[in-house]
């Protein structure tokens, strides 16, 4: 195919026009992009100046720019997998070291407490077995002595002051406790022995309701006497009552006979009596006056009496 020279010239013109249009378009696009960038920079500067004008005067501009740059660098930098692994391992190591330090501190604290307990236990073991009771008793005695001194300084009787602080219930409870601890104090006197015997005998008496009702019917109004009633010496005991009294007296005699047992005879003892009655008298005299006549007897035996 043969192309004429005129057609080739036209094609060249068209290509040249297209090339010029392309270059013009590229230059225009670059200019537009540059204009857009300049406008953004201008707007940013205006906004930054307004912020600086309205912010606190002490705040400098450099920290703001450094913060902007730091945030931009944080956004642009992304940690790698190796850095993440190293960070995780370091945090785990720090946790383990912290736990180890805590355990070490607890061990030292436990060692210190154990040592203190051992020292206290050793002190307690060296003390007497009844140390706590003795300590309480000594403290009570010290308090009592202080109270006695205070009462003496005021001119008061300590026992009377002490009794004023004791209630009737406490006193009755202490008396019951004493009786329970030592119910039978033994022979203290003939009057007390008779009173104890009376209480023992009255506890053995059982009421006879039939005889009570019978006497009530027989006496009538005199069963409950008044100041004008004369019933003294009119009562006649029944034969059954007399028999019960005799039986009770015989039991008392039998019981008393068991108590008065014969004492054992000592062949090696000194004979200072002429009969059984005189021996009992000498024992009574020795019981009451033996400590006063012991020296006289020894002088008589040695033959050194004046």
From TrEMBL:
<keyword id="KW-0747">Spliceosome</keyword>
<comment type="similarity">
    <text>Belongs to the SYF2 family.</text>
</comment>
<comment type="function">
    <text>Involved in pre-mRNA splicing as component of the spliceosome.</text>
</comment>
<dbReference type="InterPro" id="IPR013260">
    <property type="entry name" value="mRNA_splic_SYF2"/>
</dbReference>
<protein>
    <recommendedName>
        <fullName>Pre-mRNA-splicing factor SYF2</fullName>
    </recommendedName>
</protein>
<keyword id="KW-0508">mRNA splicing</keyword>
<dbReference type="GO" id="GO:0071014">
    <property type="term" value="C:post-mRNA release spliceosomal complex"/>
</dbReference>
<keyword id="KW-0507">mRNA processing</keyword>
<comment type="subunit">
    <text>May be part of a spliceosome complex.</text>
</comment>
<dbReference type="GO" id="GO:0000398">
    <property type="term" value="P:mRNA splicing, via spliceosome"/>
</dbReference>
<dbReference type="GO" id="GO:0071013">
    <property type="term" value="C:catalytic step 2 spliceosome"/>
</dbReference>
<dbReference type="GO" id="GO:0000974">
    <property type="term" value="C:Prp19 complex"/>
</dbReference>
<dbReference type="Pfam" id="PF08231">
    <property type="entry name" value="SYF2"/>
</dbReference>
<keyword id="KW-0539">Nucleus</keyword>
């Amino acid at each position: 195919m043969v192309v004429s020279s005129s057609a080739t010239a036209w094609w060249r013109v068209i290509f040249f026009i297209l090339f010029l249009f392309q270059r013009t378009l590229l230059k225009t696009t670059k200019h537009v992009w540059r204009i857009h960038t300049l406008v953004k920079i201008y707007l940013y500067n205006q906004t930054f100046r307004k912020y600086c004008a309205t912010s606190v005067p002490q705040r400098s501009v450099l920290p703001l720019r450094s913060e902007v740059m730091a945030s931009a660098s944080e956004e642009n930098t992304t940690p790698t997998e190796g850095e993440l692994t190293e960070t995780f391992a370091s945090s785990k190591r720090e946790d383990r070291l912290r736990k180890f330090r805590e355990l070490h501190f607890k061990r030292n604290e436990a060692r210190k407490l154990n040592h203190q307990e051992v020292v206290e236990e050793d002190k307690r073991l060296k003390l007497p077995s009844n140390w706590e009771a003795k300590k309480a008793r000594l403290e009570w005695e010290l308090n009592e002595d202080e109270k006695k001194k205070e009462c003496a300084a005021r001119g008061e009787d300590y026992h009377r002051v002490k009794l004023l602080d004791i209630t009737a219930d406490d006193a009755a409870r202490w008396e019951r406790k004493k009786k329970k601890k030592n119910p039978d104090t033994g022979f203290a006197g003939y009057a007390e022995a008779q009173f104890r015997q009376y209480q023992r005998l009255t506890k053995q008496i059982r009421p006879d309701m039939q005889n009570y009702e019978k006497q009530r019917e027989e006496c009538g109004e005199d069963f409950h006497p008044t100041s004008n009633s004369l019933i003294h010496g009119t009562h006649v005991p029944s034969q059954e009552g007399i028999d019960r009294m005799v039986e009770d007296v015989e039991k008392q005699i039998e019981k008393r006979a068991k108590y008065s047992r014969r004492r054992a005879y000592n062949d090696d003892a000194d004979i200072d009596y002429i009969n059984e009655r005189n021996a009992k008298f000498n024992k009574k005299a020795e019981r009451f006056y033996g400590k006063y006549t012991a020296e006289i007897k020894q002088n008589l035996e040695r033959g050194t009496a004046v």
